[in-house]
């Protein structure tokens, strides 16, 4: 979130300094471990309508963002295929109902396609006849998150942003600036105690010639499982969702479940090589929704992206940028002006004042 905000501001002509306790790769961030799925429809089964709306908006924004970055980023918009084993049929019905409940009639009509038999085999030939039914969510996509982090770092440098890697920022020593934008994810927890981490584990494997053409979701009794094909035969299998801030290595149980799930989708995964097992925690607010919070003076905090960072970041960034202009221009000066401005936005619930720093 911080890199995207910084890059957008720098290329709009603002002077930007970025501070990150990690390095330019982003390997210390939740953003590094993520799968980079852009799945507003599938996520609608689990999340509030706001997430689907921000996600659909963001899907449309990603191509223009990526086209302006100085390095290539793998981006695909070839849909997601939701599959289930026969024993989990009841779960498929529940999933579809929950998804539809959070989508408009129009989106339901164009964004959810039921496939079966030969039509399913033609849509995803690599699956053969292993599944008899599936849901295709044709508008969904994915990107290569690690390429994106690198490309944004390069884009920041290109636009002459000051880059301070390896610098930890704490609340008592905020950098001096016209505006400080705090996008520290779970690192902001000391100043935003409502934030909590939700542990997620993923496995990266590599196998040649398996031929899956789009991300698959396998309905699973415990958590939404996906297999996302990246470039060069790399597949990201994820993700567990555990109420814990433990960031220790992937457990045997999770590894067994994730790998068995992949193997049950395609036996060809049996010959894949395990490249990486990784854990990170999703920065999550109590209502599982993102927030853009203003302290009444010169700090804006963007957090709570939870399991949807890539899905919603472009739209969130656009909303935050819309607030920065009047803030810096001195049009939003107090809570009344902020409130009046907020009510005119498309998603007023995104904006709040930061509770620990009362205005005044
Ligand atoms: C297993 C897993 C799978 C996921 N899959 C997906 C997915 O498929 N699609 C999707 O949309 N989202 C996914 N996500 C969610 C996504 O990764 C997060 O929503 C997103 O990374 C949050 O972005 P952020 O910038 O707020 O936090 P982060 O990505 O954690 O970045 C925070 C940055 O702040 C820096 N920082 C922290 N504290 C300090 C400090 N004190 N001083 C200086 N710098 C600091 C960190 O080094 C880091 O660079 C997944 C997450 C996980 C864990």
Automatic annotation (TrEMBL):
Cellular component (GO) terms are: cytoplasm
Question: Mind listing the UniProt keywords for this protein, alphabetically?
Answer: Oxidoreductase
Could you give a GO molecular-function term held by this entry?
A: oxidoreductase activity
Query: Which PANTHER family does the UniProt entry name for this protein?
Result: GLYCINE OXIDASE (PTHR13847:SF289), SARCOSINE DEHYDROGENASE-RELATED (PTHR13847)
Stated name of the protein? FAD dependent oxidoreductase
């Amino acid at each position: 979130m911080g890199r995207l905000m910084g890059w957008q501001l720098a290329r709009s002509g603002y002077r930007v300094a970025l501070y990150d306790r990690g390095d330019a790769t982003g390997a210390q961030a939740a953003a590094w471990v993520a799968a980079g799925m852009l799945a507003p429809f599938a996520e609608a089964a689990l999340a509030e309508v706001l997430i689907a709306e921000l996600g659909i908006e963001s899907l449309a924004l990603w191509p223009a963002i990526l086209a302006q970055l100085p390095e290539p980023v793998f981006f695909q918009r070839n849909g997601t295929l939701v599959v289930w084993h026969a024993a989990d049929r009841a779960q498929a019905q529940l999933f579809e109902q929950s998804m539809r409940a959070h989508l408009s009639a129009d989106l339901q009509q164009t964004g959810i396609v039921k496939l079966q038999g030969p039509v399913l085999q033609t849509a995803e030939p690599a699956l053969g006849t292993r599944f008899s039914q599936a849901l295709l969510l044709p508008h969904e996509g994915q990107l290569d998150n690690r390429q994106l982090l690198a490309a944004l770092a390069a884009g920041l440098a290109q636009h002459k942003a000051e880059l301070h890697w390896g610098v930890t920022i704490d609340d008592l020593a905020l950098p001096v600036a016209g505006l400080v934008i705090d996008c520290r994810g779970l690192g902001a927890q000391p100043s935003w105690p409502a934030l909590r981490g939700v542990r997620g584990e993923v496995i990266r494997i590599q196998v040649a010639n398996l031929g899956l053409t789009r991300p698959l979701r396998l309905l699973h009794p415990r958590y939404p499982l996906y297999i996302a094909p990246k470039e060069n035969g790399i597949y990201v299998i994820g993700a567990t969702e555990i109420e814990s801030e433990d960031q220790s290595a992937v457990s045997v149980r999770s590894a067994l479940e994730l790998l068995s799930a992949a193997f049950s989708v395609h036996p060809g995964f049996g010959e894949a090589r395990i490249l990486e097992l990784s854990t990170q925690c999703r920065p999550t607010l109590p209502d599982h929704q993102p927030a853009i919070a203003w302290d009444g003076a010169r700090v804006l905090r963007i957090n709570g992206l939870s399991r949807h960072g890539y899905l919603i970041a472009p739209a969130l960034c656009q909303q935050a940028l819309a607030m920065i202009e009047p803030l810096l221009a001195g049009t939003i000066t107090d809570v009344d002006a902020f409130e009046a401005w907020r009510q005119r936005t498309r998603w007023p619930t995104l904006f709040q004042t930061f509770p620990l720093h009362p205005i005044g």
